[in-house]
Amino acid sequence: MKRHYWLLTALALIALVWVAVLGFIGTDKGSFHGDEYRRPAFDFSLTDHRNRTFSLSGHPGKVILLNFGFTNCPDVCPTTLGMLGEVLDLVEDERAMALFITVDPERDTAAKLGAYIPFFHDGIIGLTGPQQEIKRVNDACGTFYSKEQETQGSDYMVVHSPAVYLIGPGGEVMLRYPKEKLDPRKIAGDVKRLLM
Amino acid sequence: MNMKKALLVLAVLLFAAPPAWSGGEISVKDPWVRRNPPGASVTAAYMVIENRGRAADELLEIGCSCSASASLHITETREDSMAMKKVASIEVPPGDSVVLSPGGYHVMLEGLSGDMGETVTLEFKFRSGERISVTAPVVLNPPAASRRGHHH
Ligand SMILES: [Cu+2]
Questions:
Q1: Per the CB < 8 Å rule, is A119 touching B37?
Q2: A-B interface: how many C-beta pairs under 8 angstroms?
Q3: Of the given ranges (B4-8, B12-16, B80-84, B128-132), which has the lowest mean pLDDT?
Q4: A150 CA → ligand 1 middle, Å
Q5: Cβ contacts (< 8 Å) between A82 and chain B: which residues?
Q6: Nearest to B51, CA basis, from B24, B31, B78
Q7: What is the Cα gyration radius of chain A?
Q8: CA-CA distances (angstroms) from residue B56 to A37, B15, B24, B90?
Q9: Cβ–Cβ of B75/A75 closer than 8 Å?
Q10: Average of per-residue pLDDT values in chain B
């Protein structure tokens, strides 16, 4: 009978060690859903959709999700904005932010963004400003945008990145979510982990 | 009419007639239009176009009472850039269907006339001469029916 107790204790210990090992692997820093994309910390200053100045350096310690788009983009941009709203609802933490930076500042004024952005989520911040500054943010994220004139008429579209970028608490671009990784639950998981 | 003759007529109706009875071979399913956020004068419409016929058909034109123009577009995504392009038509192969969904083919509605209401009417014109009119709900998110099965 006594020997059985020893055996059970040994098995329980082995099981405990396994749980600890698996738990450690599970929280390994290397397993983010987003693609690791370390780029140096940077700063920018733009105008938000309530017509106030927004500087990245004014929000230290926050985890920021950033995406580029424009209000005349009816197919993909609304889908991404809806997804960012879902992430904010899942994370529910004031230290998490979502930014939508227009790549069409000529048409997307602060007032226009003010009508457009809150339609998706109260917590998303729409940003506009000089082309130069918007280009600088694109550079920092390692991407670009360009205006494409239609062959006829004055209408145009803006080619831009479909990805969402995650800026870590230190102000550096840490992760990149390409189109096929725009899953709100998994992105919320990354954000929560960085805020732990 | 004797019994035999009646059965023969019935058999002919059952086996020969169905294609004629089913009307058009092209059908439009699960249409929806994205509700445009305030200030946006453009939006997109999505649907599934099915061709049960034996010949390929082609969607040539689309119209909506809700907008000044409606055109066929495709969103092309490369690793780091995304752009919409106009397409002249969308081919629907025989016995197959084409899905218009976010990030792919869509109907671009430009010059929206204010509030779209709860539903809009979309008119489709095909190369075969077929014309179809459907009522599409105006919604924030894709209806459940069009969410199912289009992801891999
Ligand atoms: Cu389009």
A1: yes
A2: 70
A3: B12-16
A4: 12
A5: 140-141
A6: B24
A7: 22
A8: 46, 23, 13, 11
A9: yes
A10: 84
How far is ligand 1, taken at its centre, from the CA of residue A87, in Å? Answer: 26
| CATH of the domain spanning B25-148 | 2.60.40.1890
Mind listing the pLDDT tens digit for each residue in B90-132?
999 999 999 999 999 999 999 997 789 999 999 999 999 999 9
Residue A18's pLDDT is 64
User: How is B34-69 classified by DSSP, letter by letter?
Assistant: EPPPTT--EEEEEEEEEE-SSS-EEEEEEEETTEEE
Which range is least confidently modeled, A11-25, A42-56, B34-48, B58-72? Answer: A11-25
Q: How far apart are CA B91 and CA B97, in angstroms?
A: 9
The pLDDT score that the predictor gives to residue A151 is: 57
Chain A environment of B140 (Cβ under 8 Å): 82
* Residue B111 vs residues A148, B67, B101, B114: alpha-carbon distances, Å: 19, 5, 21, 9
Check whether B7 has a pLDDT greater than 90: no
DSSP tag of B124? E
Start-to-end CA span in chain A (Å): 46
> Per the CB < 8 Å rule, is B103 touching A144?
no
- DSSP states along A111-138: HHHHHHGGGT-TTEEEEE--HHHHHHHH
Going from N- to C-terminal start, the domains of chain B cover: 25-148
**What is the distance in angstroms between the Cα of A113 and the nearest Cα belonging to chain B?**
8
Closest-CA residue to A70 (of A97, A44, A107): A107
- Whether the pLDDT of residue A29 is over 90: the answer is no
